[in-house]
Amino acid sequence: MRRKLAAGNWKMNGSRASLDMLETLAAAHRVSTCDIVICPPHPLLFPAAKICGSGPVQVGAQDCHTAAKGAHTGDTAAGLIAETGARYVIVGHSERREAHGESDAQVRAKAEAAIAAGLTAIVCIGESLEQREAGEALGVIKAQLAGSVPDGSTGATLVVAYEPIWAIGTGKIPTLEQIAEVHASLRAELVGRFGDTGKGIRLLYGGSVKPENAAGIFAIADVDGALVGGASLKAEDFSPIIAALDAS
Length: 248
Ligand code: PEP
Hints:
Layout: E1 5-9, H1 20-28, E2 35-39, H2 45-52, E3 57-61, H3 78-83, E4 88-91, H4 94-99, H5 104-116, E5 120-125, H6 129-133, H7 137-148, E6 158-162, H8 176-194, E7 202-206, H9 211-218, E8 225-228, H10 235-247
Parallel strand pairs: 1-2, 1-8, 2-3, 3-4, 4-5, 5-6, 6-7, 7-8
Bound molecules: phosphoenolpyruvate.
Phosphoenolpyruvate (PEP) binds next to strand 8.
């Protein structure tokens, strides 16, 4: 059984004051059957983890470096992220792939560093609009999966987030059939590579998930939760998404 996961990516948003929403979420979802994770900017990881304690909300980071330490000004090692109390780290988000030129090989190395530090890596993959319109989506996604996911991954160390780039922050989402096709294909790839272990790796959908569309997305086979950007910033938006996942 895969435990469902609602992960919020705050990107470069939020402040010390916005961490209040963690207490609101924890109070509202004390008996949730899902894992709930908030990924704030790095300076907020430690206070966020302190607020969350051993409650139902966990903390994740949005990126890590491939190296354990060294001359990498401005970067953060996965081990230090783990020291803050964070349990997850997003790697390979399309905004980092685009703005920082991250390749599949780098994303894979980051995921390996995260796993070595005891974190669960949330590896993001997804096609551009041009690739979708050219009928290349499945091929692109499979290649990203093969290139970005470390050998030896398990359900404890890896989560895969399918995030079509054109759906992120745009209010547009693929059809439910398109999401179903991609997730079925990802599951087949994971099982092909990892055998039965691949059945335990969670697959998230990400891209303009909102309270209004969450239930429909969560009803799709092999959608084990969501990676949520804008709608994770306020408890009043994220909470109904968690509730929809709980009910799915
Ligand atoms: C994201 O940043 O991963 C994301 C899915 O953003 P949004 O939900 O705002 O589209």
